[in-house]
Specification:
Layout (H helix, E strand, L loop, with lengths): L1 H8 L4 E5 L1 H13 L6 E4 L5 H10 L3 E3 L11 E6 L2 E6 L1 H9 L6 E7 L2 E6 L12 H22 L13
Parallel strand pairs: 1-2, 1-3
Antiparallel strand pairs: 4-5, 6-7
Length: about 170
């Protein structure tokens, strides 16, 4: 839902990064309904990160989860709902490499087939290469704080099916 909302509101081409098996199910559903116009980049594709970086450098928007990651991904533990939890570095590293802003946004269910789109101000990971790790850590902490704020305000809208704090 968030990817489609983003696509409807952003003038740029939108790609959605997701696991290919999930993308296949989503595309089958969207094809039966209204279609999406979204480009899917497989997180499990061998060159998925390079595809995302190339899309960002072309000025496209790339939507991805910041609270989910595949096994083996680089993560950092930051405070989330009062306890340390692992969040992926990938989205933030990509934004830093591409020199593009990060826009944290949420699609919140507002009723049957209705969603409210909430977006926080854009955040840019500016600075020299030697300061990138610190910038990524700060961006990750801010992202986790924004997710915390949103989950506290809408606790039944965060779908978590595993031990997030493990």
């Amino acid at each position: 839902a968030a990817g489609r909302l983003l696509h409807e509101r952003v003038a740029a081409k939108v790609s959605v990064a997701m696991v290919r098996a999930e993308a296949n199910r989503l595309n089958a559903y969207l094809d039966k309904t209204q279609g999406s116009g979204l480009n899917i980049i497989g997180l499990d594709d061998e060159d998925g990160s390079l595809q995302m970086l190339a899309a960002l450098r072309r000025g496209e928007a790339v939507a991805m989860h910041g609270d989910r990651f595949l096994p083996g991904a680089r993560t950092q533990r930051v405070d989330f709902l009062g306890s340390p939890a692992a969040f992926p570095e990938g989205p933030f590293q990509l934004a830093a490499l591409a020199g593009c802003p990060i826009v944290t946004c949420f699609a919140l269910r507002a009723g049957a087939r209705r969603y409210a789109f909430q977006a926080f101000p854009a955040q840019t990971l500016a600075g020299a290469r030697e300061h990138r790790e610190r910038a990524v850590t700060q961006a990750l902490q801010l992202y986790a704080a924004r997710v915390t704020e949103t989950v506290r305000a809408h606790p039944y809208q965060w779908f978590n099916f595993y031990d997030f704090w493990a």
